[in-house]
Hints:
Blueprint (H helix, E strand, L loop, with lengths): L2 H6 L3 H18 L4 H20 L6
Helix pairs in contact: 2-3
Amino acid sequence: MSDSAETTGTTPADALKHAMIEQLMGIIAAPDDEDVARAADAVVEELDALLRSEPEPVA
C-alpha cells in the first residue's frame, strides 16, 4: 500500500472498496463497455481474495 494510505489510516480493503465504488460508477456511465466491466471484475476479484484471507471475526 502507498504511503498516503498508511498516513490516512485506510486499509487495503478500504482502498479496494473505494476503487469498487469508482468502478460501479464507470459501469453506470458505460453499461455496454466490456473494458469497464473487466476492470470492475478485477477489483471485485481482488477485494474478494483479500476479504477471504482475513481471519474470521470472533462472535
